[in-house]
Amino acid sequence: MTRETRPTRQSGQTVLTIKNYVNGEWVASNSTQLLDVVNPATAEVLARVPVSTRDEVNEAIQYARESYEDWKETPPLTRARYLFTLKNLMEDHFEEVSRIVVQENGKTIDEGRGEVRRAIECVEHAAGIPTLMMGYNAESIAPGMDEECLLQPLGVFCCLPPSNFPAMIPFWFLPYAVACGNTYVVKPSSEVPLSMNKMFELIHEADFPPGVINLVNGTREVADVLLESKDIKGVSLVGSTPVARYVYAKATSTGKRAQCQGGAKNFLVVMPDAPLDKIMPAIMNSVYGCAGQRCLAGANVVAVGDVYEPLKQKLIDAARAIKVGYGLDESVQMGPVRSKQAREKVLSYIETGMKEGAQLILDGRDIKVDGFENGYFVGPTIFDKVDPKMKIGSEEIFGPVMCIMRAKDLDEALEMIHQNPHGNASSIFTQSGKWAREFKHRVQAGDVGINIGIAAPVAFFPFSGWKDSFFGDLHGQGFDAINFFTERKVVISRWF
After folding, report:
1. In this structure, how many other beta carbons lie within 10 angstroms of the beta carbon of residue 371?
2. Disulfide check for 183: which of 68, 202, 213, 343 has CB 3.0–4.6 Å away?
3. What does the DSSP 8-state code read for residue 307?
4. pLDDT digits (tens, 9 = 90+) for 210-234
């Protein structure tokens, strides 16, 4: 094993148990329930994470509530300066955090770098809070009377991020919340807590006031304590659709705000005029990037008209050429899936697809990666002759599995998309402005790509999602984030 692909912890070294970060201090949990954090490429235990006790979670909430009273009175410009300091620290530790993402999540190093870059961009955008949080006013709404709208923070918010983007997704929310004057609690995924652990080292170094940003480790039990607390004003979650539906219902039943991003089944529509050689990298990255474990991953490739035969062969050739391995190797293009359980789930979907009558034209089940025989690898897989009503064509597999479908025209392709209960993202590949305009106008999806495989909004646009892909009214990022983390106060004044 080369130095570039060596895991963080060497064989024989003590496995560390990570801590919570509460009220500006690192605090060891008293919990006796510890979970392994596993490198999915090597199956090596990197660290252990505690499932925090109810009292520990409530203590973090209490400190956040107490610190809110001072933090909300801190001028927005001063709050922004903390974010600028954090942004610079994230830049300084960019490569280190990227490598941690690879080791605990399984991404390639380029994907890890891309994820950390997006997190930094959210901090950078939120640092513009003196402008973003401006209200508005109207003079002389009646003789001698003026009216204004103020944006004010609400209190303590929390975040329940998933395992597939451990460094980025909390930053869709956290910087905006604290920039607006709220305080915050993050409960990272227990599968991948190390990236956020490192981020909180940087938050500590940025010298935020104690209690403004807190971290508690754990699983669903910890999340439920946050959701049940009367002091938590709102929750941001990214997860599967069942989990998003559960969190949204539980949060809103107690009057909390909630923005809950759910699962996805994204379609990539390839029109007859699409330049196949030019679009192939975008499709490969969409379907197989991050081993298919992202809510913007392309899953169903719809060949429209007579593009089907040439497209199918190019997809097979391009997928076969993908190099699979440990992501710290710069030449690797796809890493493992996140866990042993995730691999078993993907393999079960492949078996289901064969039973449903789909044709397996590229089988990634038996892939072997030299030197990493214990890793949770699944090679690029392609099914042909998939009906959108099949289980593999309608449900989120969350792995490197492509389903090829055929449509006679754009109308039929759109109907396939609209029959699916999810509406996270959809893309079209075409040279026709007419088809592109019709697609973006009609498609029932929140994030739309035109000759783009991954329709990922930048920080100053909201990360959208429709139908069963999102529960809530305001999304993460952009002005949606500012509105989610503030309440409007309307003042009407008259002076005698």
Report:
1. 14
2. 68
3. G
4. 999 999 999 999 999 999 999 999 9
